[in-house]
Specification:
The protein has helices at 9-13, 19-32, 60-72, 97-102, and strands at 36-43, 47-53, 82-86, 107-112, 117-125, 129-138, 147-156, 160-165. The chain is built from four helices and eight strands.
Length: 170
Amino acid sequence: MKSEGTKSPLFHSLKMITEKVIRDICSNIIEEKGLFLVDVIIKDKNEIWVEVDGPKGIKIADCVEISRFIEDHLDREKEDFSLNVSSPGMGEPFKVEEQYYKYIGRNVSVLTKEGKRYEGALKAYDGDNITLEWTKKVKVEGKKKKETITETEIFKQPNIKEIKLIFSFK
């Protein structure tokens, strides 16, 4: 018979630090700061990645404060970990609804599930659809010069594979 103090090998192989644990720990501080949680990723050997953003971006000081807050609520004596708190990387696809609202008016790239790519200004987002607007030059019959026209298209969320912000360094 096994003694009460002995733990099975299965117990030691289970990951104690879970995505839910990290989300629960940092949800209040993130909300208090007017920020939003983009993603929590836990890799092998408890390498924890927390991506946070805000309507006006996020400061390094906010990342440091959130990191310290999370560390204060985890016990390294029970389980070792590494922790990285940052903003989402440049060029990463949108992961949460708040990113759509944040980038209304900015240029984005939309990749549909059919593999078509569209680029234009994100004009609207309602939770189910996004509205994208772009301009292009077209040849008008009877005129020598091409004219610029504006096109608008509404994409249904289930038909979108990914949306990324287009960065311009002009």
